[in-house]
Design a protein that fits this description.
Blueprint: H1 2-5, H2 9-33, H3 43-61, H4 67-87, H5 91-97, E1 102-106, E2 109-110, H6 114-118, H7 122-131, E3 140-145, E4 151-155
Antiparallel strand pairs: 1-2, 1-3, 3-4
């Protein structure tokens, strides 16, 4: 228990240097791999972000993991991310990696069972409709639960329909 409260200038200095080193490695790897590394694109991207956070925390705080090991772990995670990003160019891999969007509402009407399937409440849906400045349900052309977990509201005047390309899923 005394170890928890023990202060060491050497330990503090090691944490500071390790934090700076792993942070610089993170910035460099993020610049190399591009913005996608921290984008909200798929469940795989989310898992990658959690893995990066775990590596950063472990390397900074743990004495048992060296800075070199942490950087190696980051390089491997980023390499996997870049390989998966390349693999997603093939539809076969996209079906395995990405979630599929789900149509929740069409032409102002909730599609039966879709809210429950996606674990979205009517309150969530109403909040998104208000956020999109919908004032009449008749304005709503479609509401899509995106593969990222976001909810998109497509709305407009009655005289315009939705381009099929937008909801081709």
């Amino acid at each position: 228990m005394n170890e928890w409260f023990k202060f060491s200038a050497d330990g503090l200095f090691a944490i500071v240097l390790t934090a700076i080193g792993i942070y610089l490695a993170l910035i460099l790897l993020t610049r190399i791999s591009g913005k996608r590394s921290f984008s909200k694109m798929s469940s795989f991207d989310f898992a990658m972000t959690v893995a990066i956070g775990s590596i950063l925390a472990t390397v900074i705080i743990s004495k048992s993991v060296s800075l070199q090991h942490g950087i190696t772990g980051l390089v491997i995670i980023y390499a996997i991310q870049m390989l998966v990003a390349e693999a997603r160019k093939w539809q076969f891999m996209r079906r395995i990696i990405d979630n599929k969007p789900t149509l929740l509402m069409q032409n102002g009407k909730i599609i039966e069972g879709r809210l429950e399937k996606c674990k979205v409440t009517e309150s969530d849906l109403k909040a998104k409709l208000r956020e999109a400045n919908v004032i009449q349900l008749s304005e709503v052309k479609a509401v899509v639960f995106e593969s990222t977990g976001d909810i998109s509201v497509l709305h407009g005047s009655d005289d315009k329909g939705i381009d099929e390309w937008l909801i081709d899923f």
